[in-house]
Amino acid sequence: MNKLSKYRTIYKNILILLLIGILLFSLYLLGEAVKGAEQFNRIYLWLFGASILAVVILSIIIIQRLVWLFIKRKNKEPGIKLTSRMVSTFIFLSLPPVLIVYIFSTQFLNSYIDSWFDTKTDKALNDSLKLGQIFLEVQTKQALAQTKNIAQKLGEIDEPRQAIYLDKYLEESTAYSLTLISASEKIIYQANSDIFDLSSDSPPLSAIRDARSGLNFTRIEPGKSGNQLQIRTLVRFDNELKITSSYRFLQGIFTINPEYNALANSIEVALMDYNQQKYQREQLKKSFSIILGLVLLLSTLLALIRAFSSARNLVAPISLLSKATASIAIGDYSQKVPVSSKDEIGFLVKSFNTMSSQIAASSALAHRAQTDALSQKWYLQNVLLHLSSGVLSINSEQRILMANSAAGKILGLQDKDILNQNIEFLAIKNSSLLPLVELLLTKLEDHNEEWHQEILLIDNNTRRILVVRGSRIPDNETEESEGGLVVVFDDETIINQAQRDAAWSEVARRLAHEVKNPLTPIQLSAERLQLRFLNKLPPEDKDVLDRATQTIISQVENLKTLVNAFSDYAKAPELKREAGGLNQLIKNSVDLYFVSNAGIDFTLDLIEPEPIMFIDKVRFSQLLTNLIKNSQESATSNNIKITIKTSISKSIDNVLILRLSDNGPGFSEKIMEHLFEPYETTKTGGSGLGLAIVKKIVEEHGGNIKAYNDETGAVIEISLPIYKR
To answer: Could you give the CA distance from residue 429 to residue 423 in angstroms, rounded to a whole number?
Structure first.
C-alpha cells in the first residue's frame, strides 16, 4: 500500500469515526431533549446543527461513492457487480425498519410532550405564587401591628426617656431597627439589632406625608444586602402625657428571610418558563419530528456508506495481493497485505505475508539492532542529563571524556572547562577543587575497582562537602589494559547543615527543659534564706549571706535568660504571616534604640515605593532586634554606626535584599565557617544563639542569609521573596 492509499485509509477511518461520533452525540442530545421543554430549548440548535452537518457530509460521501461505482461498472472491473448487489440489498433492508421506527417514535414523542403540560402543574405554580403573596401580606400586617404597639407604649412615656426605651422594645420585637423621628423629620434615635451597623435609614418623603396625615405607611422593598427583602413601616403617635403638643414618628424595619426571596423568585421564574413552553408546545412537536427525521436519515445514510465499505472490503484483498505479488517479483519484500478476514482469502493473505516476512527477516534484524543501540545511547544521555548528581568519565590519560550538566553546576565550571580537559585543569580554573583533583589522580593510580570518599572544599570561607564515588572501567573491549574511572559526586553541604541544625534544635530543646525546671526553686530558696536570716546574723555574717544570695539570684536570672534563648531557638512557632511592607518594621526597631539613648547612629536607605512582603511581623521584629543588638555588642568604640538598606535583587526575580552593615571589627575568621550555628560567639557572656535564631527566622520565611566583612565592618545580607498578589 503506497503512502497515498495509506493516507486515504486514515482519512476515511477518521471521517467515519467522526460521523459515528456525531450520530451518537445527536442521539445523546435527543435523549436529553426529551427530559423537558427547557432542556430542549437549550440544546435545540446544537442538536439541529449536528444532524444537518452529519447529513451534509454523508450526502457528499454517498455521491462520491456512487460516482466511483459508476466509473468502476463502466470499466468492468472485477467484483464491481458484487459491490452493486450488496449496496442495493442494504438499501432495501434498511428503509422499512427506519420508516417504522420514525412513525412510532413521532407518536411517542408527541404524547410525551403533551404529558409535560397538565392542569395540576399549572394550578400548583399559580397557587405557589399566590401563597407567597399571602405570606408577604401577613408579614406586613404583623410588622405594622408591632410598630403601632411600640408607638403606643412610647406615647405613654415622656419624650426625653423615649429613646432610652427604644432598645428595650427592639429586643422584644422582631424588627431589625426602630427609628424615632421628630415632627420636623429629624432622626432622634435609631436602635439596630446589629450593633456594628451605624448607618441611619431615613424614611421616604411619601411615607412622612402619609404618616403626618394620620395614615399608616407600609412598604416591601429590597434590603441593604441586595439578596433579601425588608418591610418598612411608619406610624405617627402623640404624647399622651400632654407635656408637649408636638407629635413624633416611629419607623420600623423588618427583614424577611432571604430564603423566601430566593424561593419566590424561583417560583416566578418557573411559572414564566412554564407558560412560555406551554405556548410553544406545537412548535416543540414539529421541532422534535424534524430532528428525529434528521437523526434517522443520518442512520440510514451511515448504513448506506457501510454497505459501500463492506463491498469494497470484500474485493480489496484480491487487488492488494495482485499488487504485492508484482512487488515481490521485482525484489521488494517489504510489502504486507493486511489480513481483513479469517476465511480462505484471509488464510491466503496470511501465507503471503509469512513468506515475505521470512525473506526480509535478516535485513530487519540488522536494522533493529542498530536502532536499539542508538536508542540505548540516547536513553543513557537523557538519564545523565536529568541526574542531580555530577558524573565524570575519565580515561587512563587523565582526560575527561564525559560530564553531565550537574557536574558543571556542582564544580562551578562551564562545560568547555570540563569536557576533553585534563583533570588538573579543573584546579587551574578553580583552586578550591584541588582536593578533588588530588583524589582523582590518586584513584587513577590505584587498582581498586570501587571506592567511596568524602572531601572538603573551601572557597572564600565557604565550606562544601562532596561525597565522591568511583568505579574503574576498561578503556577498550579487551579489558586487559589499565582503564579509566567513572566518578559520581554529590554536594551534601545543605544536607549536613540541615542535620546539624536539627541536632542543635534538639539539644536546645532538651537543655531548656532540663535546666529551666530547677531554676525557680533555687531562686526562691535563695530569696527565702535572705529574708529569714539576713536580719538575724551579726554584721560580718550578714554581709557574707547577702553577697552569696545576691550572687545566686543574679546567676539564676542569667541562666533564665540563657534558657529562654534556648527555647526561642528550639521551638518552631506557627507563623502568623500577613501582607505588608518592611520599612515601618525597620523604623520601629530603630526607634526603640533612639528612645533608649543607645548612642547608635543609624542610616536608613529604604526602597520607595516598598514592595509588599508576606511575613510574620513579630518574628521579623525579633530578627531586626537581634541583628542591631549583635552589632551594638560587637562594637569596640562608643561611635557605633549602623546602616540598613533595602533593594530589589538584580540577579533574581521577585526578591528583596535587606542589608545591615556596621563599623565594628567585623566577624572573626575563626567562627566565620560556623557563624550561624548555635553557641558560636566571640563576645564575653554571649549565648551564641542570636544569629542562629536570625537564620531560623529567615528560613521560616523562605529566604537566605549570608554574612561577610567589608572595608567598614560586618555585613549581614538577607534575601526574601516578594509577595505576589
So the answer is: 11
